[in-house]
Structures
1.
Amino acid sequence: IIIMVNIILVPLWTAMAIQPNLLQAKGIQVLPPVNFTLTVTALAEVLLHWKPNPDQHQNYTVIYEVEIITPVQEEYNTKHTHSTRTVVLHDGFCAQVRTRLSYNNSQIESEWVTEELPALAGDAGTSVTNLFCIVYTASYNTASLHCSWLAGEHAPTDTVYFLFYRYNNYTEQCPDYLKDKWQRNVGCRFSKTYIDPKQIDTLIIIHVNGSSKHAAIKPLEQLFNQNTIGEEQKENQVGWVLILVTVTMCFITLLIAMACKMCHLWSRLFPPIPTPKNNLKDLARTYTSETETEVGSYIDDLGSYNEDLYCEVLEDSVI
Ligand SMILES: *[C@@H]1O[C@H](CO)[C@@H](O)[C@H](O)[C@H]1NC(C)=O
Ligand SMILES: *[C@@H]1O[C@H](CO)[C@@H](O)[C@H](O)[C@H]1NC(C)=O
Ligand SMILES: *[C@@H]1O[C@H](CO)[C@@H](O)[C@H](O)[C@H]1NC(C)=O
Ligand SMILES: *[C@@H]1O[C@H](CO)[C@@H](O)[C@H](O)[C@H]1NC(C)=O
Ligand SMILES: *[C@@H]1O[C@H](CO)[C@@H](O)[C@H](O)[C@H]1NC(C)=O
């Protein structure tokens, strides 16, 4: 029996003998923050706010550990008593915060305090789906925003969807909707926005809610940045520039060719110098660096066939 008691007691003793940390050893108490609140300050923006525990001794360095639990897990520390997060809120938001004391390389944490925001109200299957947005950059650094979506599977035919975007502190409702066969809004165009095309990392928040006589329409939020949604558009722009440059150069070539045909007399006065027909790139160089006479001779040699070839050469060199 004595041996058995020993077997049970020895591990207990060792556990208790392990020195906790300095602060625990000193019997220092750390108390959780108080009055932790969550406030929605803008679309998809939540302010976390708390107060230091009034009974907490202020002798030690206090920081706060924050953990966002939903919708996206995130942990961070702050010495402030507030912080702001930009996250989608349609499925609710849950976070916890605790006090942490640090002293002489040891630290001790309080209990967590937890708060949550409920999911935005609405019937299942009524939210829009397949929400997709593109930012188009126009001239003078203005940006337009186009979005499209599908009506929720269980959205009644009388559903009216409303789309909002938020960019920094600007929030705007869609002025111009596209409709499906039941006249439900399923697309939106903002021809002018506050979006700065140069700030490609700034988040664009999209919020789509709605109303219906027969169902509560559940809102949906989505975060984009121009980096991810503008990609297609930027490639298009490069494509357009290439096409424009090529067309312009072909047009100039055509004009020169016409001008030279009009001055045909001139080339008769100065007979054409034989040109190697198999090296078109050389010809392109000749055109840019040498005299009009040589271009004229080239055109005379190849006739109308030359213009197409010439454009091909130019396209090769542009791309
Ligand atoms: C916490 O909130 C309660 C009630 O709103 C208030 O009476 C109290 O003073 C607050 N505590 C602190 C530390 O601000
Ligand atoms: C806080 O620190 C001061 C001096 O640094 C000390 O006199 C006081 O007892 C400390 N208070 C507590 C609650 O530890
Ligand atoms: C700080 O910690 C070291 C070792 O952990 C200890 O020797 C020292 O006495 C501590 N200082 C104070 C002021 O508690
Ligand atoms: C947005 O915030 C900026 C400063 O950050 C301020 O100058 C501007 O007036 C605000 N705009 C709106 C619409 O609140
Ligand atoms: C939709 O959201 C906007 C912006 O939050 C709000 O002002 C509006 O009342 C909402 N409409 C409905 C029908 O929920």
Note: Confidence is low (pLDDT under 50) at residues 10-19, 230-235, 280-319.
2.
Amino acid sequence: MHDDEMSARGPVPGEDDYEGDWEGVPEGDDPLSVVAHGGEREVETALRPRKLAEFVGQPRVREQLHLVLESARKRGVPPDHVLLSGPPGLGKTSMAMIIAAELDTAIRITSGPALEKAGDLAAMLSNLTEGDVLFIDEIHRIARPAEEMLYLAMEDFRVDVVVGKGPGATSIPLEIAPFTLVGATTRSGALTGPLRDRFGFTGQMEFYSAPELEQVLRRSASLLGIELEDKGRSEIARRSRGTPRIANRLLRRVRDYAEVRADGRATLEVVRAALEVYDVDELGLDRLDRAVLGALVRSFGGGPVGVSTLAVAVGEEPATVEEVCEPYLVRAGMLARTPRGRVATPAAWEHLGLQAPADSVGVDGAVPSLFD
Ligand SMILES: Nc1ncnc2c1ncn2[C@@H]1O[C@H](COP(=O)(O)OP(=O)(O)OP(=O)(O)O)[C@@H](O)[C@H]1O
Ligand SMILES: [Mg+2]
């Protein structure tokens, strides 16, 4: 997208230290990690859909957003502020860029952790021109003073800049150009009420179905010039954890394998063999997912156990287990979040090759199965 546009108006405070990665998650090269790897951003940029019509899946969010944008365009005003929430790799950043592209405006990018001081945000806001999109990634991690400044900016397109210290300090109101804030978060629950209330529209991104991921893969394969056969494509889609980022990454690993060990074509056999090498299991669970399930089942008898205890058992931050790992395990019907703690479902026991105890959750079919 408009890389040149982004910096067209000179350096922006906070933008330099912008770090797209989800902090707290190690930047390994695990092919299944939902978090973008260090060198992966360029490829991701190349594969990002540019327009709403190109964006696969998320029909609800897409339709709602289309209405929000279209009506704003008709009225000739910047659309309401938009919050995008959902697990990593489902297309929040892509969608933010699409919003700017659809509006044909510039996008300014920063992130919650980069906005430590209210001044960082004030400088960013005063740099905006009318109609710009300001994208704040990981908005739940914004520092308190910046957040409070944002309230006023979102509501009245104004900020109060405090000049000086102590009794002589004065607050100078500063007009800012009407803009649209697009916030992205993996934890909408961590947003404060006042901040959440100031967004006119919240798009909740869901995991993708296998057919949707096949569409993503079809597009990526053609962009990357990879010969991907139909059956190979559905196999990758099935093992991508409902996440386009993972689908694209597995596709690239499959391409490597196809080029080195085969004739370059990604057939079903090639895909299976490649995924075997990269230790991607039948359901696409990654090492952390399997570690969490393993600990839950083996060390805690299937639960219930608190998320922090579980996180300690697998040597991870509770936030990582909760935001990166659990959403998919819940979606896949392997793990249930109950008021008393996390519980393994019979599907989890089965997946680990173990016999579930007779009284485990979901035996009566209460827990949804994979891709219901
Ligand atoms: N709907 C989609 N159609 C096609 N490709 C997609 C779609 N959603 C995501 N992708 C691909 O997945 C990659 C990751 O998406 P993106 O960076 O937008 O996710 P994210 O939700 O912002 O993740 P994070 O929470 O880690 O920031 C993109 O590079 C893009 O290629
Ligand atoms: Mg992102």
Note: Residues 92-93, 137, 184 surround magnesium ion (ligand 2) (CB under 6 Å).
